[in-house]
Design brief:
By secondary structure, this protein is α/β, with parallel strands linked by helices. The chain has one domain: Alpha/Beta hydrolase fold, catalytic domain (Rossmann fold, 3-Layer(aba) Sandwich), CATH 3.40.50. It contains twelve helices and eight strands. The chain has an eight-stranded mixed β-sheet, with helices on both faces. Helix 9 packs parallel to helix 11.
Length: about 290
Amino acid sequence: MRNLFITACLFIHCLAATAQMGNVQEGKTVKSTLLGKNVRYSVYLPPNFGTSERKYPVVYLLHGYGDDETGWVQFGEVNRLADKAIADGTIPPMIIVMPDGQKDWYVNSVDGKVKWEDFFIQEFLPAIEKTYPIRAEKRYRGIAGLSMGGYGSLVMATKHPDLFAACAPLSAAVWTDEEIKNFPEANYTGFFKNLFGVGSNGNRISEHWKANSILTIMETGDQEKLKSVRYWIDCGDDDFLIGGNCALHLLMKDKKIPHKFMVRHGEHNWPYWRSGIIPALQFIGESFHQF
């Protein structure tokens, strides 16, 4: 009898512990007409998901160059970190969606063959927000990412400020025009030529680059619309992208666009991003509150 009681207690304890854990679903897809293929994504569903009629806020979390939709779970452990942060009240319960951006930088290519930005805005967001119980409003929608994904999060938030309450890039791939001009030819050709093309006389500062340069968008965009998004910018002091992030901070300060700018000790690596993702989600989560 005593053993049966102990077994029952352990079972109840396991059920309680399981209830405090979120659920990660991988291998999900959204069919894209614009891209002509199915696009994979992973999704984090918070603890106790599905136990009520509740609708949740959403954060779109973008991976870096060379990773895929599983990176933030496999290497970033975002599910474990989010479980703990939700349990202790650091972040509100939220759905986190992680699409596969491949190596497309989350923008439309200059030749129109890859329309990733259009896919994300026109197809992916509507499909996700019909599939899951999400509060499909700007005030309940955030976006974040690391490196290439940090750049992508800024592209989406600055070009579509009507859709996102907050944006939290980590180690964002932000470059000045001078940095783009000075990229070694092999690097520029390998990473960016098919994406941004070249302008007249072989000038890398093409019109398509300007249309997707975060610094140019911040400089020339509608300031009131840009200010409608809350920004959290975090980059390590030993990160090779620190220059562009500092330039972004100074420009936003000059333009009086409110933002939080963090320079922590660290490099361009997963230890830095794992330590930064919950503060970033906490910042986004504050946007979901009523003041």
